[in-house]
Amino acid sequence: MSRSLFWRGRRPARPILAMMESDGDLLLRLRSGDERAFVGLVERYHEPMVRLAASFVPSQAVAEEVVQDTWLAVLRGLAGFEGRSSLKTWLFAICVNQARKTGTREHRSIPVADPEPVVDPSRFDASGGWSAPPEHWIEVAEGRMEAGKLADRIRTWIDVLPARQREVVLLRDVEGMSGEEVCAVLALSDANQRVLLHRGRSRLRQLF
Amino acid sequence: MRLLRGRDLVCQQAVELVTDYLEGALSRSARRRFEAHLAGCPHCTEYLAQMRETISLTGRVAPEDLTPQMRDEFVDLYRRWQSEQQ
């Protein structure tokens, strides 16, 4: 059995972060005025928040500004943060609020009925069975991930997903938030969250 | 769910149910039908494995490092905020 097979499904979602201290510990240090705790939090969440904000606003530069404002709002709100949600959920909710205030994109509810198929209908025969079944790629992708050659590509793929799918995939699958948390941060119904997640993940799958 | 009434699932329907299946959002009968389809369909089993792999790989994308310059800017931001507090 290859090493990649052995590891599949057994390693923590984000091995680098898993070795770092928890958000709760960072929060405690931050509240005691520890500057390094703030920088630690920024290192963990700045780039993901910029990528999230970018789906609401017209340019990367504006997304950067939104997240700068977010960090200031975080510092100002820190004393009032009661921990009723996780720190991460609180941060991303502030970020989305800042982005919405700045952004021009309208956030209307999306129709859930009759979604487009996630797999090209030409891959199925008339009876709905596969005529062009999925080709096996899992071990190859694992190998490329292990070799550090895949993460950048996945980032790029996520960034070109339709905005609403991108937001859900970023929060659910990159950040590892629960469906409930994502619904709260993005103000989505559970059903819409699942539809967006389904389309986003299905599109990413095709790219490997 | 509309697709699930009637007889056995076909592959084209099964792929649309993968996320609801992984999210635990299918009814018990829909779940049974989905799993029965998988048991007889290696292609949809592969498809489900690929969706799980997609989730796993996406979850291993770590944030990119801050540049030293950005780091310094955030230290400044923090110090400015702290001095406002006093």
Q: Characteristics of this structure?
A:
heterodimer, A: 208 residues, mainly alpha, Rna Polymerase Sigma Factor, Chain: A, Arc Repressor Mutant, subunit A, 2 domains, 11 helices, elongated, disordered N terminus, B: 86 residues, 0% strand
Model description:
The complex is a heterodimer of chains A (208) and B (86). Chain A is mainly alpha-helical. Chain A is built from eleven helices and no strands. Chain A is elongated, with a radius of gyration of 19 Å. Chain A starts with a helix and ends with a helix. Chain B has 86 residues and is an all-alpha fold. Chain B has one domain: Anti-sigma factor, zinc-finger domain (Arc Repressor Mutant, subunit A), CATH 1.10.10.1320. Chain B contains four helices and no strands. In chain B, helix 1 crosses helix 2 and helix 1 packs parallel to helix 3. The chains are: A mainly alpha (208), B mainly alpha (86). At the A-B interface, helix 2, helix 4, helix 5, helix 7 and helix 8 of A face helix 1, helix 3 and helix 4 of B.
Which structural class fits the helix and strand makeup of chain B? Answer: mainly alpha
Report the CATH superfamily of the largest domain in chain A. RNA polymerase sigma factor, region 2, helix turn helix motif
CATH superfamily of chain B: Anti-sigma factor, zinc-finger domain
In the CATH hierarchy, what is the class of chain B? Mainly Alpha
What is the average of the pLDDT values of chain A?
Answer: 87
Mean pLDDT over the residues of chain B:
91
Unreliable residue runs of chain A: 1-18
Number of helices of chain A: 11
Report how far apart the termini of chain B are: 60 Å
